[in-house]
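Tip: read the tokens left to right.
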């Protein structure tokens, strides 16, 4: 149900470019041929073929399980965040365009667990606001305790996607490693924001909105 008084922006942070980046990481060329002693299930080429067939048939759950096992699990949560940073620029730009609009406030953004995609947007926003890394890290890791009540449900969902229980956690070093990737790959935080198409004027507007905009509580 959607409220008529609320403006919704449904932005899929893991869009087409991100999905293509996952497909490129599939190990479909890891075996040049299938030896007779190999079972078909052990061959990455077979897994790649299954993925394409299941996607064509609309069997998204099975396709996601292959990507989870072969690509997302080895990358881990930190690698997943870095892949999003590098491949979801268009989607992240849409998020910050919403944040740049003073009429959007108060604003509430979320994802499934509220720590991965949401955590990445929060990290970028807080970095733009100049919040110290150690403060951002404390805020991020606090999410893990807030998710205890739904942990079992999330674990079952992740296992079905070919992912381990680690994906329910908020790993130590997540904030630091994503920040290091931003500065080392794009030269600086400003370099990354410019990469997203967020010029200095837009960044100033976002900072002003985030600091000065009314909260939901003040509007009640």
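Filled-in amino acids:
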């Amino acid at each position: 149900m959607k409220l008529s008084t609320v403006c919704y922006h449904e932005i899929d942070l893991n869009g087409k470019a991100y999905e293509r980046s996952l497909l490129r990481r599939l190990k479909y060329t890891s075996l040049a041929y299938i030896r007779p002693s190999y079972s078909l299930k052990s061959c990455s080429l077979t897994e790649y073929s299954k993925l394409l067939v299941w996607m064509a048939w609309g069997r998204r759950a099975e396709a996601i399980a292959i990507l989870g096992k072969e690509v997302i699990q080895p990358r881990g949560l930190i690698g997943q965040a870095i892949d999003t940073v590098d491949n979801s620029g268009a989607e992240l730009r849409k998020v910050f365009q919403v944040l740049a609009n003073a009429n959007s406030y108060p604003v509430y953004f979320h994802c499934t667990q509220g720590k991965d995609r949401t955590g990445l947007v929060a990290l970028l926003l807080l970095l733009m606001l100049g919040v110290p890394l150690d403060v951002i890290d404390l805020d991020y890791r606090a999410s893990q305790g807030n998710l205890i009540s739904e942990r079992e449900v999330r674990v079952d969902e992740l296992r079905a996607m070919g992912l381990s229980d680690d994906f329910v956690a908020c790993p130590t070093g997540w904030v630091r490693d994503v920040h290091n990737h931003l500065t080392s790959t794009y030269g600086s935080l400003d370099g990354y924001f410019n990469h997203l198409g967020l010029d200095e004027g837009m960044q100033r507007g976002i900072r002003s909105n985030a600091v000065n905009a009314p909260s939901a509580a003040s509007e009640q």
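The mean pLDDT is 83. The two ends are 21 Å apart (CA to CA).
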